[in-house]
């Protein structure tokens, strides 16, 4: 074969190879584009799945989807990818941190559920198992949601049980606090004798292990007892008013009757007086007109007899009048006596109430109302006579410990002893009141600035030296005292505030001391 023929056949072969290579390249390009399109579609779908986690990411992905949609614009999408990659990475870290946070949150909720004593045993067991499960970290949000659902299920079970047995609703610390406060309050109220046993029992219950329903019942009972007392007082005053009204009606009738009979008597008397005058006139006329003595004697005898008759009728009338008057007076006296008795017993009751309203039933010291009255009175004297006036506020130290360690009734007795000791350590002119709880207020007129500290420290020492013995244990009870003198142009309330602030200082400086605000 000639060289030229060889060259031609080689060229033909190369052409053929080139054609095959081009066809292969076209097929490869087509295949690559198909795969790329599939990939782009997939990215589009994936980006939709990420939607809703982060707004910036959503916007970027929307833009990416738009750019990828037109195959020719694919180059424009490339720079966006860097940003999107950064956002996706951040989003991943954030999601993981949030999931960990949520896991801790759920563990807290679990601990709360475990504290619910009334939870059924089945729930308690499941909660324990669930707690172990919860110790493993979550990897996706979808692992988290069923856990939350499970927790809600536990709550549902517990609530369901409590709705079915409302008596078992858990009593919270604030309920117990309310019960204790109610116990203190009812010991400050004076109940009737026949109510006292019931109140004592209630106080014991309130200070013991109480359920919520017992607490509510106690509130209801106390309100009923108080309403009953109010109703009784109302009916006692009503009875008194009715009795007063009846007595006044009787007195009015008596007065009316005696007035009417007086009028009738006055008319009769007038008639009799006229008759007597007429007889006297007639007798006078006879003396001047008749000259014959015998005739005169006869006529005069007739006139005198008529006169005697009229006079005796007048006397009878006057006697009847006096009898009526006496009866009226007696009837009125009787009514007045009975109404005076009623009024006295009502007054006594009022006085008792008034006294009770001013006395603290536990310690028998003056109460807050009485203190306010006395503060007014002492302040007026202080202004009028320019005498010094001190006010001291005192509070027992760590009194809660006495209650907590030895019981509330020991606490009550301690208060009584301290109240008595305070009262006994003051002069007649001085005054002490229970201000509330374990706090007392002293009003001390006529004390000089040099003496106030001596006096109050003496009171403090006196209380400190009381040999209290609880459960065979010797206990020292101390007081903190704050005092202030009423200054010129100052109200007693302002001085009280200063004394209270001084008490606060005494407490803060270590208790068992007197602080005087000068
Ligand atoms: N037994 C009894 N306790 C009372 C009465 N009134 C108040 N308390 C108790 O007095 C205590 C006062 O406690 P806190 O206010 O904490 O004061 P504290 O323990 O005295 O401590 P400090 O005042 O800070 O020294 C509480 O436990 C009250 O329940 C009462 O009439 N009887």
Automatic annotation (TrEMBL):
Entries under InterPro entries matching the protein: DGCcoil (IPR048516), Diguanylate_Cyclase (IPR050469), GGDEF_dom (IPR000160), Nucleotide_cyclase (IPR029787), Rev_trsase/Diguanyl_cyclase (IPR043128)
Biological process annotations from GO: cell adhesion involved in single-species biofilm formation; negative regulation of bacterial-type flagellum-dependent cell motility
Pfam families: DGCcoil, GGDEF
CDD domains, per the entry: GGDEF
SMART domains, per database record: GGDEF
Residue ranges occupied by any GGDEF domain in the UniProt entry: 387-518
Gene Ontology MF terms in the entry: diguanylate cyclase activity
Cofactor: Mg(2+)
Highest taxon in the source lineage: Bacteria
Reaction it catalyzes: 2 GTP = 3',3'-c-di-GMP + 2 diphosphate
Catalytic EC class: transferase
Keyword Flavoprotein: no
Alphabetical UniProt keywords: Coiled coil
Assigned EC number: 2.7.7.65
GO CC terms, sorted: plasma membrane
Annotated coiled-coil segments of the chain: 307-349
Full protein name: diguanylate cyclase
Organism annotation: Shewanella aestuarii
């Amino acid at each position: 074969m000639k060289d030229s023929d060889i060259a031609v056949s080689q060229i033909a072969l190369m052409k053929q190879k080139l054609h095959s290579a081009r066809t292969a390249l076209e097929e490869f390009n087509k295949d690559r584009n198909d795969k790329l399109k599939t990939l782009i579609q997939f990215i589009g779908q994936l980006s939709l799945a990420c939607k809703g986690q982060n707004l910036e990411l959503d916007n970027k992905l929307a833009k990416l989807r738009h750019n990828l949609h037109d195959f020719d614009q694919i180059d424009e999408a490339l720079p966006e990818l860097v940003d999107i990659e950064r956002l996706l990475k951040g989003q991943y870290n954030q999601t993981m941190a949030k999931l960990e946070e949520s896991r801790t949150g759920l563990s807290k909720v679990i601990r709360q559920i475990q504290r619910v004593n009334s939870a059924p045993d089945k729930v308690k067991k499941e909660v324990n198992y669930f707690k172990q499960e919860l110790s493993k970290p979550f990897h996706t949000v979808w692992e988290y949601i069923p856990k939350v659902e499970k927790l809600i299920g536990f709550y549902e079970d517990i609530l369901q049980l409590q709705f079915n047995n409302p008596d078992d609703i858990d009593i919270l610390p604030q309920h117990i606090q309310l019960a204790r406060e109610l116990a203190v309050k009812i010991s400050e109220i004076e109940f009737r004798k026949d109510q006292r046993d019931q109140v004592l029992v209630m106080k014991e219950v309130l200070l013991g292990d109480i359920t919520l329903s017992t607490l509510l019942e106690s509130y209801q009972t106390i309100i009923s007892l108080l309403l009953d007392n109010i109703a009784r007082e109302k009916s006692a005053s009503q009875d008194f008013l009715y009795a007063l009204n009846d007595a006044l009606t009787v007195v009015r009738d008596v007065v009316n009757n005696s007035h009417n009979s007086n009028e009738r008597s006055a008319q009769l008397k007038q008639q009799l007086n006229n008759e007597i005058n007429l007889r006297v006139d007639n007798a006078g006329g006879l003396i001047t007109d008749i000259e014959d003595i015998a005739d005169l004697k006869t006529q005069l005898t007739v006139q005198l007899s008529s006169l005697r008759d009229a006079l005796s009728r007048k006397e009878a009338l006057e006697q009847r009048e006096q009898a009526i008057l006496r009866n009226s007076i007696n009837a009125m006296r009787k009514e007045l006596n009975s109404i005076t008795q009623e009024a006295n017993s009502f007054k006594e009751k009022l006085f008792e109430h008034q006294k009770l309203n001013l006395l603290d039933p536990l310690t028998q010291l003056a109460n807050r109302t009485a203190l306010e009255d006395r503060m007014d009175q002492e302040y007026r004297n202080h202004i009028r006579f320019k005498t010094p006036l001190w006010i001291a506020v005192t509070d027992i130290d760590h009194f809660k410990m006495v209650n907590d360690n030895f019981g509330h009734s020991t606490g009550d007795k301690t208060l009584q002893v301290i109240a008595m000791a305070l009262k006994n350590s003051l002069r007649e002119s001085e005054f002490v009141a229970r201000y509330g709880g374990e706090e007392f207020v002293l009003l001390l007129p006529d004390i000089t600035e040099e003496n106030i500290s001596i006096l109050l420290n003496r009171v403090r020492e006196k209380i400190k030296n009381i040999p209290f013995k609880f459960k065979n244990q010797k206990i020292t009870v101390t007081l903190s005292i704050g005092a202030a003198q009423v200054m010129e142009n100052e109200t007693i309330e302002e001085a009280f505030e200063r004394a209270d602030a001084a008490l606060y200082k005494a407490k803060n400086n270590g208790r068992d001391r007197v602080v005087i605000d000068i």
